[in-house]
Amino acid sequence: MGFIKKYTKEELLSELKRVSKNLNKTNITQRDFIRNSKINPRQYIWHFGSWNNAIKEACLEVNLSTLEKKVPTELLFQDINRVVKKVGKIPTTDEMKVNGKYGLGTYKKRFGSWSEMIKKYNNWLNPPTDTIKPTEVEKETEQNEIIKTYEWNKIKITEYGEPINFRGMINAPINELGVIYLFGMVASELGFIIENVRTAFPDCEGKRKIKGKNRWEKVFIEFEFKSSNFREHCHDPKKCDLIVCWEHDLRDCPVEVLSLKEIINKL
């Protein structure tokens, strides 16, 4: 039996990206990979659990030509409902991309658009019935609205971060917006001048004072709740100088990280 070289996750992901670049396509199949690489695809299954998990980890597109036909619509709605309970509202496409089991292409091909999917999902939650008598329609509608309101009220649970009691902010951030607010409180104290905050990547543009000098340097900042979200969102590290987050949990991060959780303890 010949020697089989074992590759690290980083090496496997790098090889996937190389093949993708050479073929000039982002939806790499196992057949494409076998023809263009010496690495056995089984190594991806050992490391990542499945070929599609590896494709997602490499920020490439899952090939849905056969996958989406196998997913029943009922399972798609169940997964949407799971994400709704997790985020506490109808999810955006970005939230679904991060938390959902299936690719956005599956929903697009099945329903045509995200807004149409939401309509079908609402119908799935409250299916119409043809057995209601005309005299009972008003009573049944009112009852359904009460049930629907009760269900949505159960979903909208208010959650709080750990108590920090920092300059009027009682609890720690639990999302990216909380990170932005907290950074605004201490930015000038940390030597930052903010010039622009936007929704496009990177989130923020400003200047940072160079230590020991009366000079400033240009800095592009991306806000994340956790530093690992930077990788999950497939951001380009070459276009960002600094990640400002609450919790730093990404090893070997290619971008400088400022953890507010560590900073406020010092302040």
Describe this structure in words.
There is one protein chain. This protein is an alpha/beta fold and 267 residues long. It has three domains: 9-62; 68-155, no CATH class; 163-266, no CATH class. The chain has helices at residues 9-23, 30-36, 42-48, 51-57, 64-70, 73-87, 93-99, 104-111, 114-125, 137-155, 176-186, 228-232, 260-266, and strands at 163-166, 169-171, 192-197, 204-209, 216-223, 242-245, 256-259. A hairpin with a 2-residue loop joins β1 and β2 (169-171). α3 (42-48) crosses α4.
Question: Would you kindly provide a brief summary of this structure?
Answer:
With 267 residues, the chain is an alpha/beta fold. It has helices spanning 9-23, 30-36, 42-48, 51-57, 64-70, 73-87, 93-99, 104-111, 114-125, 137-155, 176-186, 228-232, 260-266; strands at 163-166, 169-171, 192-197, 204-209, 216-223, 242-245, 256-259.
Outline type: globular
Main β sheet profile: 5 strands, mixed
Query: How big a fraction of the residues is strand?
Result: 5-15%
Lateral arrangement of strands in the main beta sheet:
3-4-5-6-7
How large is the radius of gyration? 24 Å
H/E topology pattern = HHHHHHHHHHEEHEEEHEEH
Sequence stretches where pLDDT stays below 50 over 5 or more residues: none
Tell me the total number of β-strands. 7
What is the count of DSSP helices, taking H or I runs of 4+ residues?
A: 13
The end-to-end distance, rounded to whole angstroms, is 60 Å
Number of self-contained structural domains: 3
- Averaged pLDDT: 83
